[in-house]
């Protein structure tokens, strides 16, 4: 019975001892009859004694911190260890050189392919310490210009001993470079934002340490820009609306918020641009993520918001060309996204429907509003029409809650506030196009209002949901509803509408402020505003059992569980 | 092999003999060789002779009207009889005292827990006669103030012998008090109105006799009010519409119908109020019923109809505050119902979609119509907008006939006429809001007309469906279409529209009259207008096999079937 | 163990040899020990020796071109061969007479019922040659007046030997006469137009030769009329539209196209009328086909197009009665089709949704447009309203791509261009009804434009799809979009809209021209414009294994495959 070995070693040992002395690693010392590779030892022991029973294809031996799990060398077994193997190859050079002396070349070759140190398990309290000499290659597959050069140099140097490493690295790279299919996202992730790894999945990036900042910086971050820039519009409206004159709100809040929003957008855009440059693979994976892709509308919508919120002191009339520039990427994205809905496959609407799809709709109405503000006519109606058609489709689909909507959260969730966004912006857009807050504008407004109330009375459903950066995107619908209410108040001015305006504005400002405090706490106190972005680190294929096991091990604190689970599995 | 016993006894025997003499009851007399309890007999016989085979866990013996089914005392077996056991405990006191003399205490103890008289089976023609001394406790769980007081008194008296009874009663009560989940309704009931018990289900209330009137009085009864009050509107419209002047219809029909409708509403409301007071549990179960819940809109819609139909001789202009009062409960219910559609779970729209959902939509349009009639502006548009949004969702969902719409009838059914209701009222509402029967009003009107025709040509599909009180609710859409046609005739007056008005009015009046005759026949001749309302009597959990069996027995008239089915089952 | 026999014979042999000498046919020669019928041999062998093992219910013997498959004579086995048996009965008379000499009458009787020559397998290169004396009965079941008379004559002649034939023919006829259920269409066919037989299905008509022309002439042919007549409208619009004056397009293209379209419509109608007369069964099956049924709208829509495209030189104002005549069949079909969507069963919308359903919607808008052109008011709004309601339903359903939409193609397909049809015609209809290309008209126009663009950018998806007559129906939406653009250009005249008009018109004309060339090539060069219309030739019930086998055989060129598959099957 052929066996493949998973070997687990304490890295710190690596640094203290020479490779020859490491037990259970690829380095083999043939000095004595007692083969120093305990694995070989163990297997031969077992095999010679004939003690290995047919039923148990898993043997677990532990000797001096070394855990060896032998697996049948099935084709799937061959993939073992492709994930995290790049670690200590440099150190092993002499080991590999030793291998040339291997009196059992066949065995050695087998080992070369099969046994690689895949799991860096912390034993006891000892931390994994990476020597500075060893560059961390684990994030290479996500880097735009990574490793390639180094590998070429290595190849030029002609080190045959690194072949196995490079080979494995290549297959590793291959696994990552091609972004996972959309079904993999559904299979591997869960939660309303598809951002939590399922228990049976493993991440292609290390889960036990913080990733580079850029890798952790998601496109959701543009949600903050949405939240702040929409607040800027709200305060501009409060300032300029005659119906709200009695509040005597000056132009300052708008001005401050606008500059703040501008700074935010510039900062977030800059950082995300860096991500695009340095981690294009990660961006690609965000783009293929069925929920995350909708956030790619966010930067453009934020810019539209900025154009809408521009303080009168800076500019009164914006040039229409800005509108054309901003609407182009939105239009392109829509052609892409709506086309995917319709043209089937794994991204068809009955599969991907999620409240965050509203982000891909609302851009139409915001664009229509801005265009109408600028005095354009046909363009705004075009986007209004496109938005309307797809909003009906999305509204019905989301309300139906088809059983195939895998990502629709079981319970209500802040993401549902996106329901309010489209109709509240649509009513303003129509009012501006039509030049009057007429019945056709009031219908979407009242729909937005009803949805708002419907969600507000269910607000206790939202308790107990952990904070996420994406929440920012869920605040702008509230702000949008407030602005729409103010516009409505301008058409129907009475005590009720005025109170409603003040009330909704207060709620939205309060929400944004609260979220800001939360964000600051998470960013600077808890320092976990940008956790590892697991969504982009899923494997391209369903992980093999061995990987799941490895994942399980690395996450389980008690090896007893593992032992028992292994022994349990080995019975099958 | 442990056995649990289901014992079936004729209650009348109970009253004539002392407990010791009751066969098949908990009281066991070990005095003579002819053990009066045939169950014990049977079991001991079988056990002593060792004849019970492992495969057959069901033995059926019948002796002197007593049917005993022995079941394995599995955990599920322990639940047997928790439903209807409260019957004759008082009578059994001495029995229990006798039990203390039981020479086989172990057996007695087992019996105490396991064997309770659960099924009162009528043997032959003999009727179940309840002595006045024995209050019928079977409906207690549905009563608002039931049994609690009595039980407290019993406890005060300190009768330890009643403990088992109380305990069991508590678990019984527990089972009923928590209303069944919505999935239970789908699992346990069938038919387009989810009002028929599936074959595999048992009712928690006795199916073989008439329940108290209030328990049988469903919320559907408000459908009659809808039917009659909408007729009042029709005749008011026929009277007042200039386009229909040529018919010379006076104000009397409207007046009579209005007073009749008022009387009906008051009566039905009063009776239902009694039900709320005395059988709150039953009302709760109606409210949780996924189809029935829509009928909770009916009383308010009927009131709106009354306000619309108010004869000019009584009032010309109603005060707007009436509108606010009437719309509040509708608004509250909508927040609840639409929220359930959206927020998922078992009540999501793709699961509960049923034409009766139109009742929850149509209130919006009726409210909008009344409000516009009263001269209100924003309120009506609000409800019109809410109605429109949700009508589109519902219309698409119902037209699609998703496979998950468990309650959607396979064939057409009168309930489909509710499709006509919303657009026909919507067109009137919009015409009133807009002040003109414009194109926007004609579109819903023509949709209603097409749906009407589409259903009318399929009218033969309706044959062979048994009469139900809910049918009343399906007449008002026809009346609504007639009224809308008259309104349309006022806009487009010609021979075709006039003929159509007369035709549709005649059909709707004829339908209502026919239904009235049917209802009177069922109410006073057949006396089955209010059959047992099985929909509210489903068990909270899937019934165990034993209960199904019991149900099967009580419904099967021929014990031969049972015998064969038992023997068949016992083979497995 | 009873056995049924499938016998396969080379027909040409039948004609050359006397029946007695035919091996493997019903005629049995008991003269020599070497029984020439290996089947009888095998059976008698098996039966006499009682050696038939339970596990293998398939024995395969081949001797001298004869393949015999023995199957258990289960009730399903009795149906074997009911499909194609009518072939050579006349020839067998003497065989049957010989059978009277059969020393084993019981066996002979069994044979009479069980073994019929069902498969006309070509052996090697030899072609199936039908003698002129033998009328081809295979298409009889689809003929309106077929065989009945002949059979009656045969019966009068009193030929008892034909009984088996007639009997089998009757059951054959029975199988065909009742059109297959809609689920059969879904089960048996595949492809976006449900026009390809699945591998496991057999055709009731011979697949290996060309059917009569009328049987191959599908209702899709009216698509050509749609394509040409819509072009006539386009060139009329280009001629008459003031905004397009600068192109100086004369009235001739419209005139020529109109007359061409008229000729086409008359020709196609005439041929299809012949089909209705002579092959009513085939028409019925087209009507029951869930995708094909939508094409029954095509002739009427084509007539509406003709009325819209009528050259000013022929008539300026058409009489409204034409509109009423043309709309009646459309209205009737709609009552039928939409009713099926709603009333459930296998034709419910969530099951049959397919872009070709747009054909059943677009008639409403074309009718509304024509009616409004004629100066009618209420009729057009009626159809506009009906179209709008059902378009929303269909649009949402198609966009959602429910998993139950069995017929929705996986990839994009020309059929998707039908998405563009309804909104582009709707905008013109509304503009005409309203008397102005207002915002309400622009919204559907822009929706159409977006959908057009969305499909255009995916045009490479269309590659590699084989040509089909149905493509013609997918060209008129492009033409419709062009016309709508010209109408829009009349409202908003500038360089962009003019360019767009020219561009879209050019594309649509180019597409139609290309398609025309393709059609001519297929019609006159390749002579495969009308291939066998497999869609109508599916069996009413799921084919039995034996039939599938037979189908498999007839289609497989290598009998080795069959051998192995049979032997493989026999192992189970």
Automatic annotation (TrEMBL), chains A, B, C:
Belongs to the SLAC1 S-type anion channel family. Pfam families: SLAC1 (PF03595). It comes from Rhynchospora tenuis. It is a multi-pass membrane protein. GO terms for biological process: intracellular monoatomic ion homeostasis. This is S-type anion channel SLAH2-like. Coiled coil: none annotated. One of its GO terms (cellular component) is plasma membrane. Keywords: Cell membrane, Ion transport, Membrane, Transmembrane, Transmembrane helix, Transport. It comes from the Eukaryota. The chain crosses the membrane at residues 213-235, 255-274, 295-315, 321-338, 359-376, 382-400, 412-431, 443-462, 469-489, 495-521. GO terms for molecular function: voltage-gated monoatomic anion channel activity. Gene3D superfamilies: Voltage-dependent anion channel (1.50.10.150).
């Amino acid at each position: 019975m052929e066996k493949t070995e998973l070997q687990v070693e304490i890295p710190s040992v690596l640094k203290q001892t020479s490779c020859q002395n490491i037990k259970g690693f690829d380095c083999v010392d043939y000095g004595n009859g007692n083969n120093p590779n305990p694995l070989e030892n163990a297997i031969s022991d077992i095999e010679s004694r004939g003690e290995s029973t047919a039923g148990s294809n898993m043997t677990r031996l532990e000797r001096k911190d070394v855990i060896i799990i032998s697996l049948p060398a099935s084709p799937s077994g061959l993939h073992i260890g492709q994930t995290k193997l790049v670690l200590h190859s440099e150190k092993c050079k002499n080991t590999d050189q030793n291998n040339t002396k291997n009196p059992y070349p066949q065995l050695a070759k087998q080992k070369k392919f099969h046994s690689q140190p895949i799991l860096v398990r912390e034993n006891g309290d000892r931390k994994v310490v990476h020597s500075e000499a060893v560059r961390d290659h684990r994030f290479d597959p996500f880097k735009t210009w990574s490793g390639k050069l180094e590998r070429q140099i290595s190849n030029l140097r002609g080190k045959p001993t690194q072949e196995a490493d490079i080979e494995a690295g290549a297959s590793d790279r291959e696994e990552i470079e091609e972004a996972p299919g959309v079904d993999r996202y559904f299979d591997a992730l869960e939660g309303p934002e598809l951002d939590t790894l399922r228990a049976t999945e493993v991440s292609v990036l290390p889960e036990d340490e913080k990733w580079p900042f850029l890798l952790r910086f998601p496109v959701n971050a543009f949600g903050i820009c949405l939240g702040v820039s929409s607040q800027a519009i709200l305060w501009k409206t409060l300032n300029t609306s005659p119906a709200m004159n009695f509040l005597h709100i000056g132009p300052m809040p708008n001005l401050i918020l606008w500059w703040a929003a501008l700074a935010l957008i510039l900062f977030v855009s800059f950082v995300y641009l860096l991500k695009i440059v340095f981690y294009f693979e990660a961006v690609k994976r965000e783009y293929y993520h069925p929920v995350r892709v909708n956030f790619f509308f966010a930067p453009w919508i934020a810019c539209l918001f900025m154009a809408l919120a521009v303080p009168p002191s800076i500019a009164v009339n914006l040039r229409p060309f800005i509108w054309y520039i901003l609407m182009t990427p939105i239009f392109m994205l829509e052609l892409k996204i709506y086309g995917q809905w319709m043209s089937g496959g794994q991204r068809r609407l009955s599969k991907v429907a999620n409240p965050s799809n509203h982000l891909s709709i609302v851009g139409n109405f915001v664009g229509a509003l801005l265009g109408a503000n600028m005095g354009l006519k046909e363009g705004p109606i075009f986007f209004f029409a496109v938005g309307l058609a797809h909003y009906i489709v999305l509204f019905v689909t989301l309300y139906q809650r088809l059983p195939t909507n895998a990502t629709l959260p079981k319970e209500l969730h802040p993401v549902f506030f996106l329901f309010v966004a489209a109709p509240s912006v649509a009513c303003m857009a129509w009012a501006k196009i039509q030049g009057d807050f007429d019945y056709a504008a009031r219908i979407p407004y009242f729909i937005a209002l009803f949805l708002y109330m419907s969600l507000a009375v269910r607000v206790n459903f939202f308790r107990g949901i952990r904070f996420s950066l994406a929440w920012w995107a869920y605040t702008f619908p509230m702000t949008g509803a407030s602005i729409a209410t103010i516009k409505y108040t301008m058409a129907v001015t009475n005590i009720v509408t005025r109170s409603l305006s003040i009330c909704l504005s207060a709620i939205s400002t309060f929400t944004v402020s609260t979220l800001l405090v939360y964000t600051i706490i998470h960013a600077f106190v808890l320092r976990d505003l940008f956790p590892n972005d697991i969504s982009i680190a899923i494997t391209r294929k369903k992980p093999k059992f061995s990987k799941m096991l490895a994942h399980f091990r690395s996450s389980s604190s008690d090896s007893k569980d593992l032992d028992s689970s292994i022994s349990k599995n080995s019975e099958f």
